[in-house]
Predict the structure.
Amino acid sequence: MRRVAKRGNWIFLFTALAVAALLSPWASSYPDGLERVAEDQGFLERGEGKEVMKGLIPDYAFPGVKNEKLATALAGIVGTSLTFGAVWGLRLLRVGYGRSRQKGISEKSGGK
Amino acid sequence: MHIPDGFLDAKTWLGATALSGAALYYALKKTQERWEDRQLPALGTMAAFIFAAQMVNFPVGGGTSGHLLGAALATFFLGPWGANVVLTTVLIIQALLFADGGITALGANVLNMAVIGPWVAQGVYSLVGYRNLGGTFLAAWLSIVAAALACSLELAFSGIVPLRLVVPAMLGWHSLIGIGEGLITCGVVIFLKRIGMVPFETLSLEVQKR
């Protein structure tokens, strides 16, 4: 059961990367719901030039890559991996908590 | 519906940040109490998938698009607290690295999409259970509409647009986007169950039994 769940996680992560690499370049470029409403009701320009920071990969296009589809796919793969890594990093927030439970956890996972 | 910088005034974004900060603190505490290290990969892969899926805008007609939010999906497998954490992580990465959603608006975006979305979905799940695919669709649809309503209230509260204009427009478009959210959520739920992921309800019962 646990083994199945573990394999499932790998499949799911692979699926996420595939979506980022293969589907995201073909995403619709129409404005989203909020952008559309902002456009229609004339407050879209209130956001123009107000960005606090640009971000390393603005507009989901990997900088320096000419091919648009490739730039989006790369941005997708980087973002997906970083998101996975960031949640993994939450582990660090729980060091103290983990220690008090360490014994129980290692006993449970010992039987793998 | 990522709000950019410039749409919200200071009282609104500060207030929203305080609210979502408190909710998130509690969510992190709860997640750490309930989740063991070996369950961390499930949080990570769900976050990764939701990030990827949020990049894929689908047209909803009338020259407008939407994308998966993933609140109902994450809540289905991780529960509301886990979903809060996962969606907040996605929103932070989008804001910091991809300039998707403003930095000042981050707290409001977290409140709408990472706090209200999952809790509305959880409300539906606790009413209709996890077995009914129609319930999953409803949870997904309602999570989008609720987040859009919260977003409209924040915009109106900032004085950028009158309430009576922004609410019907936002709810109109997002009830369309919500249909896409519902269909994708149901599809991914079926897929994930098939590869051996367990719904949160089953999982929490299992943990209690041990």
